Amino acid sequence: MGDFLGDLKKGLNKSVEDLNKSVKTLEIQSKISSLKKDADAVYAEIGKRAVEESGPEKYGELGDKLQIILAEIRTEEEKLPADAAETKKTKTCPGCSAENPGDARFCSCCGEMFEDQNP
Ligand SMILES: [Zn+2]
After folding, report:
1. 88 vs 26 pLDDT, higher one
2. Which residues pair with 91 in a beta bridge?
3. How many angstroms does the Cα of residue 108 sit away from the middle of ligand 1?
4. Which residues have a beta carbon within 5 Å of ligand 1, which is an ion?
5. Which terminus of the chain, N or C, has less C-beta within 10 A?
C-alpha cells in the first residue's frame, strides 16, 4: 500500500509540475504576443514614414490600396464638420450661464426654460 501512496504523491507532483509549466508557457506566450504587437506598431510607423518620404507610388499595389483608403478617409472627414458643428452648438443659460446642448429646451443646471431662438 505504501507504493500506492508514493505513486499517488509522485503523480500529483507531476501534475503540479505540468501545471506550473503550462502557466509559465502561457506567460511567455502572452509576453511574446505583446512584444509582437509593439513590433507591429513600430513597423507601421516605419512604413508610414517611408511612404511619406518616397510617395505611395513606389509601393505598387499596396501604395494604390493606401491611396484609396486615404481618399476615403478624406471623403468621410469632409462629411464630418457639418455634423460635428451641429452637435457642438451649445446654448448658454441666461440664468446661470451653464452650457447646454443646442437642442435643449431647459437648462440642465438650474432648470430655466429656453425661449426658442431659431436663427
Ligand atoms: Zn441655468
Report:
1. 26
2. 100
3. 7
4. 93, 95-96, 98, 107, 109-110, 112
5. C
